[in-house]
Structures are given as structure tokens and as C-alpha cells.
Write a structure and sequence with these properties.
Length: about 110
Amino acid sequence: MENPALAGGIHGYVRPDEEEEEEAIDGARRVRRLLASSAVLFTSAAASVIIYAVAIDPSAAQAFIGFALFLLGVSLALLAPVADQFPAVARIGVAVAVALRGYLFGAN
């Protein structure tokens, strides 16, 4: 019979089956964050294209920023399906997307 005091783990020890479950949850959360960040970046790119189209004196910097946001959104959307195969790259993508979202919109 297992000691109930040790059932949740002690001093950071987690049973192997719990580790796999936590990795699966973390992977699903990572995919959701990639897709959400991708959607935000696509929306930002669309907004910058609209601003560029209606601006009286558009600059090339506005077009470049919109294009860069679009490319980043595409790369995150394409990374989402294979995030479980490349967890390190997915973590980096999520970190970059969250930082950029925080920089552009002031919130995570």
C-alpha cells in the first residue's frame, strides 16, 4: 500500500507517469499559445496592411513591419503541428511570440 503523504511527490519528485501527463499538458498548452500568437500576429499584419493602404504618405517601414509580422505569424502557425517533435524550437517560438505580443500590445 502506497503512503498517501508521498502520493503527490516529495521534494520535487514526480512519478514517471505523472511526468508524461505533465509533458502532454505542456505540449497542448504550447500548441494553443503558438496558434493564439499566430492569430494575433496575422491580425496585426492585416491591420498594418490596411493602415499602409489608406495612409496619405505611406513609408516603406510600415510595409516591412507588416510583412515581418505576417512571416512570424506564418512560421508560428506552421510550427504548431510539429511542436511535439521539436519542443525546444516550440519553446523558443512561444517565448518570442509572447515577448513580441507584450511589446506590441502591452499584455501577455
